[in-house]
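Deliverable D5.2: sample structural annotation.
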Amino acid sequence: MAVRNTRSTHPSRSPQVEHMLKSRGLDFEFEANLAIADIRHAEGFQVRLDEHQAPKDQVAKYATAMKHGATFPAIVVNENHEKIDGNTRLAARQKNGDETIAAYIVFNISELEARSLSVELNQSNGLAMTEVEIRNFIEAAIKAGQHPEVRALARMTGIRDLKISRWIAEVQFDERAIEAGISARHLAVLPPSTRASLNAVRMAAVFGALTLLAAEARIPAAEVKRLVTQVNGASSEEEAIEIVTNERENRADDIRSVASGFAPRELRSRGSAQHIGGLLRFDVESLLDVSSDKQPETYARLKELRDRLDQVVMRAATEWNLEP
């Protein structure tokens, strides 16, 4: 779309702001003297928490600087003069009794586009947004059905892409868990890292079963991540469900302890028991099905495993209580 009114020059024009608007394909014009009385507040455009909108000390500083001739970048509004960016600058002009303010008027901009633009403008022109405010913006976009682009959000906000990815995973997890019928009581005990890991489960039925188990047995995040890798690597939904079922059986004592109000016991052997259970799912032919380039390495590891298991079996025969 053609950009309007690009010939006039004014100290409040901002090449940086105009670049943002042009890069987003937005149609806009610059108004040097927009009537402050005509500017409206639009709740749907706000990305800042109430306590961070035009803080009094910052308004006072801006007002003093303006009285002494300082020039600030123009604020941004839509064609209905609903404010998108510039809370503090506008409040400072009002404090000084001014009736007009320089503004960019953006046309045909949606609420989501306005919030996204407001985030980027705040990070570059105003008081940088807090992580809570940025996360609220991202969560609201996901719940509205949007699919965030992590790299673009990282560039806009200055938040590391890994952290943004985790936020997205946690929000998506909550929506999937509600759809799967997981109760709020179970969801409340799952920490953010566990939620993000569980969101990686591909199959819906497996996701619901593993999420419920993680909550009931209070499975640590690291172990949840390992289980997610196992179920995603299963050849079928039935095999993945079997993995979860076996895990539930292994953790029956933990589930009972949690239900009784106690923390699960730490069992050092749990990991080895799960790996042994995994090996037993393969028959001889499956274990022999190894590509030729991997056969020498696999053979050496199988021999090492056999020798170690021989020692374990010998000691278990004498040290364990094997009576039924």
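Annotation notes: The CA atoms of residues 47 and 193 lie 25 Å apart. Strands lie at 27-35, 75-78, 83-85, 100-107.
The annotation will be released with the project's public dataset once the embargo ends.
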